[in-house]
Amino acid sequence: MSQDVAEPVLEVERLSVDIATPRGTLHAVRDLSFTVNRGETLCIVGESGCGKSMTSLAIMGLLPRAATRRVGALRLLGEDLAGASSRRVNALRGNRMAMIFQEPMTALNPAWTIGEQLTEVYRHHRKASAAQARDRAVELLAKVGIASASERLVQYPHQLSGGLRQRVMIAMALMCGPDLLIADEPSTALDVTIQAQILRLLADLQRDLGIAMVLITHDLGVVARIAHRVAVMYAGEGVEEGTAAQVFGAPRHPYTRGLLDCIPVPGRTARGALLGNIPGTVPSLIGDMQGCGFKARCAHASAQCAQPIELRHDDQGHRWRCVLEAPVDTLLPPGAQGAQGPSVGSSS
Amino acid sequence: MTLLLEARDVARSFSVSAGAFRPKRTLQAVNGIDLQLQAGEVLGIVGESGCGKSTLARMLLGLTPPSRGQILLEGQDISTLDRKALSRRIQPVFQDPYSSLNPRRSIVSIVMLPLEVHGLGTPAERRRKALEMLERVGLPARYAENTPGQLSGGQRQRVAIARALVMRPQIVVCDEPTSALDVSVQAQILNLLLELRRDFGLTYVFISHNLAVVEHIATRVAVMYLGRMVEEAATPVLFESPRHPYAQALLASVLTPEPGLGIPETGLGLAFPDPLNPPSGCAFHPRCAQARPECAHTPPAVRRDALGQVSCHLHPASASQQAGHEQ
Q1: What is the DSSP string of A106-156?
Q2: Which domains are present in chain B?
Q3: Which of A149, A293, B20, B97 could anchor a disulfide with A141, C-beta 3.0 to 4.6 Å?
């Protein structure tokens, strides 16, 4: 899975995003660090409001005006993005780094044809002629599995189905051959069978083109199937990061364990039995947070959880932000809840 | 087992505008569905967007009259039943708890409303009943005077469930009840539905596009495709040995959190089902990897056997079933 020499494409160190609200400063992302190497898919997973979308916008330099970014270091292929001029970031965005959004109907311009939208980026960044850009668009539409590509170029977004629109979005993101692709919930708005097709396409393209991909999703099933590495976010913090096998097989953070127990898995979870669940609700992200953001919902919480939590790691590159020394599965089950419960991914 | 709810060859079409000066087109949302719901069952209905599952749910609730066929509640045609009488026995829970609750009312008054409409009890009794039901679904009395806007998505869905149950219906039709929720909240709501079913002896119709959720909660599963039911069977049977190629593809598309399995190849191709212009013969044949020549022009007959029902040329109906549409 990992290559001999890991070439970092995206390096994010101590990223924070604050949003000014009438009730105070909302800390959407706190102190998040990760690296994505060439040929690697990193999935950022978490529930609504955990800061995963803000993270992607912060990397792309597309944060809303009310949000401010603070970052220790942000590098694309070694080049500093944190201090780069907006002109330089504009030259990189759509070119060396590209993004796919959740809802292709809102991300595509309804008044322009597919062809106009596909070629615009390429002509802008590559100073290519209309004919060259058109050839490139046909090539990429074929690559994302769209038959009779040249006829599609004159169609408008509303003439395509949701799955085809998302393929157009993917083709558009790949027009300039980016090194980094960020996909924010690329399959969430699609039907299940279409979702599988789109994810398979993304995984194939990522492998064939050797790009670095950051895939943002709330769906742990998607993560397990596509990720090389996984970063779990909770309340703006990265709480766990590791390979898919590490995070799903031997989660170290109680939130990851809880999230996995919430999902029924055909063939593994007893039908009709109660699912595991995470009691309580997500804490407010407004104002300072003391210690672990998950402590109020955590069955393993102790007094030390109110102190700042250091990131721990093992020698396999598995990192977690929790005071627990042992993997969650080796601890005694807390309370009776979910006692007969599911054992998703605890096979190792 | 007693037969509680039955749909006999129900169909519903809508006429949709095709443009300002063009004739209206007919959209066949539901096209000849038979189903039986036994007391105590949880019937899962799965299918992709536009397959007619929500239209079917609205017909079962009596909110949309079928354009053909009939729906029987304990043997009585629901079109002959008074709307109020029907709503005491069958209640909905919808997908979006943001739009299905009145934003200007307190949650206790939302839950009391069905009792008021039916004129049951004194105001004090109604309030007590509503508070009891809210407590039962996990919303303590301190929430009673809040408006829906002050609650989280999961809490709002609890309000919707309390409102559905306050009349003590026999059947609850849940249309994508957890699709708008986060996974941890989804688990809470599914657990609540499972507990309430046990405690109140409820029968559910559970509509979802999430097969893992349906597998978990349903006792029987019906798979719909472009307005038709392509397969129906007990949950273990359907999940262990689906017969219809569409059901097989749908099951293969379920992404369980098991790393190392990769992303499945559904073999479905790119043909997108258009409900306005359904394919001839078997509606699934343009996407079907196992399609035969006859699939393109002859709609398959329904085969009913010990395992359930399936409509596919790979599983031909017996001669008697083909001849008559009777059972």
Answers
A1: HHS-TTS-HHHHHHHHHHHHH---HHHHHHHHHHHHHHTT-SSHHHHTT--
A2: 1-16+25-210 (3.40.50.300), 230-327 (no CATH)
A3: A149
